[in-house]
Write a structure and sequence with these properties.
By secondary structure, the protein is an alpha/beta fold. The chain binds thiamine diphosphate and magnesium ion. The site of magnesium ion has 7 residues, from helix 16.
């Protein structure tokens, strides 16, 4: 397209390049290192700048935007400190294969390499976690760099790109034309490969499909659902990818998450044919590379992935198909359906086992978390969006919420705490007409809960459910398994989250018992502003399958030849610091901190002080 060329500053050229790529939102925390860009955005009617309160929040929102839309989420941060804060979002985008483009205001070009004020070497810092990290030194090349960034972020295996933009480069002027938006270059599976896939599948007795990774489209999910249905193939999904196949589909057989149903693990071990689509067959998926043996798995492996570099990285496939998700799914859907009677019982059992996991789980204490999940599941429409933080609480939504539509789940597959709240804000920004519910632990909430201010500032209304157990529960559980009764560094003193929310101008309510939840949830969904429900759960409800005490006692038994040592029994919830000797802690010591009869607060619980070891958890509410 012919364009009238005129002189522009680098900042303006960059904003125009973003406009050319239809960028409508940029998340960030301002810095004096990119004033020219902020000034360009001042005039750009089509780009809203979402001012955040911490760069981790901004980068997480940009990542979630990328997951929600399939287009790169754009983030702006300032030099070293901003880039360092934001790096968690880049790591999420990397491990979750999410398109993202982050710009870092950089020291002036003449200072580069002198370790100037706040300087960081962007290329080295982000060398491992990005698909591409570079610095733009010439304003005339901004359109070229932005074009490459958008191509790179979306093509093949999607991922993050980080570009440093020196502040003097942004001020310099150039005469340069804008580029056309980046084109997606899909890769198609070959005809011969599809025939071979058909043949390998026809020989299977216990086939399994695994869906995961990034780069999916709604059509791709529909096409694979049709293929799974026509061939009755039991299908598992990667950790936090349950929205790739309708959980009510007759082939859906569960997710390869942490703390999954052991039958799911067994199913993958038993499979004689695995069709892995989009998944890297990574650490979590394969339970630390044990469910499939590297490099040559016991099952026939067909690996479909959009990047040739991933093929054979850990597992040698029998058939490697380099293809993008939509193109592979469209092709596989057209294969002649196979006679599935050979695996009829296998698929039925897989589905049955999954349905069994939905049956009510026991939840100790005054709040029945199963019932909470039942309320969430029945109250929300199917297009509601769920965002997850990292932590054990996420086992409840991951197990009991049924995802039926694509892009209704945003969760950090890299297990980064602090994701849930920013992701909820980004999701509600992108889809204001849909309910957005964020699940987060008390630990994760205190990492990025400050972004409530961002939600209020921009009028965004996610519902945040804080699973408050007064501890970094996940680590506490690991601790109890490895070092039973020796609680170290995992207990927390929390503010009153309902009042905390209220102080931001959000709706806040404390949930003390099961019956409190449904009316509060209703109000949260309909109040028209951001809402926080502080679910003061029993710390015993450490997973959907076991209590904290059970985990501790199992570990103690293992340490003591199968019997529980005298005085070691801990039958009450154990959120409080637990006796470092094996004597039973006094009864009141295990009361959750918010219970009215909880003992007097103490401000610290030094690890070394034996007298404090039996001190109750500080009351905070
Ligand atoms: C950014 C980050 N820091 C630390 C960890 C290690 N970690 C994993 S889960 C967890 C505890 C989470 O606590 P909380 O959010 O309260 O959830 P809970 O496990 O209690 O349900 C920690 C510290 C992590 N995954 N991410
Ligand atoms: Mg917790």
């Amino acid at each position: 397209m012919a364009q009238a060329l005129h002189t522009r500053t680098g900042g303006r050229i960059l904003v125009d390049a973003l406009k050319a790529h239809s960028v409508d939102t940029a998340f960030g925390v301002p810095g004096e290192s990119y004033l020219e860009v902020l000034d360009g955005i001042y005039d750009a009617q089509s780009i809203r700048f979402m001012t955040c309160r911490h760069e981790a929040g901004a980068a997480n929102m940009a990542e979630a935007y990328g997951k929600m839309t399939g287009n790169p989420g754009v983030c702006f941060v300032t030099r070293g400190p901003g880039a360092c804060h934001a790096s968690v979002g880049v790591h999420i985008a990397h491990q979750d294969s999410t398109p993202m483009v982050m710009f870092v205001g950089q020291v002036p070009r003449p200072f580069v390499g002198r370790e100037a004020f706040q300087e960081v070497d962007i290329e080295r810092m982000f060398g491992w976690t990005t698909k591409w990290a570079a610095q733009i030194d010439d304003p005339a090349r901004i359109p070229e760099f932005v074009s490459r960034a958008f191509h790179t972020a979306r093509s093949g295996r999607p991922g993050p790109v980080v570009l440093a933009i020196p502040e003097d480069m942004q001020r310099e002027t150039a005469v340069v034309a804008d580029v056309e938006p980046a084109m997606l270059a899909p890769s198609y599976p070959g005809h011969m490969e599809m025939r071979r896939l058909h043949k390998l599948l026809s020989r299977a007795e216990r086939p399994l499909m695994i869906l995961g990774g990034g780069g999916w489209t709604s059509e791709a999910c529909d096409d694979l659902a049709a293929f799974a249905k026509a061939n009755h193939i039991p299908t598992l999904v990667d950790f936090r990818r349950q929205d790739l196949l309708n959980n009510r589909h007759p082939s859906y057989a569960g997710d390869l998450a942490y703390a999954k149903d052991p039958k799911v693990s067994e199913r993958l071990r038993q499979a004689d044919f695995v069709l892995a689509v989009g998944t890297r067959l990574g650490d979590v998926t394969t339970e630390g590379y044990t469910l499939l043996q590297p490099p040559r798995p016991q099952a026939t492996l067909v690996h479909v992935y959009p990047d040739t570099n991933e093929m054979g990285r850990v597992y040698q496939p029998d058939l490697a198909i380099v293809a993008s998700m939509a193109e592979f799914a469209a092709a596989v859907k057209t294969l002649e359906p196979l006679d599935w009677m050979a695996w009829g019982d296998w698929v039925k059992a897989a589905r049955y086992d999954y349905l069994e996991t939905l049956e009510a789980a026991e939840s100790p204490g005054n709040i029945d978390l199963y019932k909470v999940m039942d309320t969430v599941r029945t109250r929300l429409p199917q297009d509601a969006i769920i965002t997850l933080d990292a932590g054990n609480f996420s086992g409840w939504p991951q197990r009991f919420y049924q995802f039926t539509q694509f892009r209704t789940l945003l969760g950090p597959a890299n297990g980064a705490m602090g994701y849930g709240v920013p992701a909820g804000i980004a999701a509600k920004l992108v889809a204001p007409e849909k309910p957005v519910v964020s699940f987060v632990g008390d630990g994760g909430f205190m990492m990025t809960g400050n972004e409530l201010a961002t939600a209020i500032h921009h009028g965004i209304a996610p519902v945040i459910l804080v699973f408050n157990n007064g501890m970094y529960g996940t680590i506490r559980l690991h601790q109890e398994k490895r070092f039973p009764t020796r609680v170290s560094g995992t207990d927390l003193t929390n503010p009153d989250f309902a009042k905390f929310a209220d102080s931001f101008g959000a709706f806040g309510a404390a949930i003390e018992k099961t019956e409190d939840f449904a009316p509060a949830f209703e109000e949260a969904l309909t109040c028209g502003r951001a809402a926080v429900l502080d679910i003061r759960m029993d710390p015993e409800a450490i997973t959907t399958r076991s209590t904290l005490t059970q985990a501790r006692e199992t570990a103690l038994r293992a340490q003591h030849g199968g019997t529980l040592p005298a005085g070691a029994r801990t039958s009450k919830p154990a959120s409080a610091p637990v006796a470092t000797n094996s004597e039973e802690a006094p009864a009141g010591a295990f009361a959750p901190p918010w219970q009215s009869n909880a003992p007097t607060p103490s401000t610290s619980t030094p690890r070394q002080a034996p007298a404090m070891a039996q001190t109750p958890e500080p009351a905070t509410t």
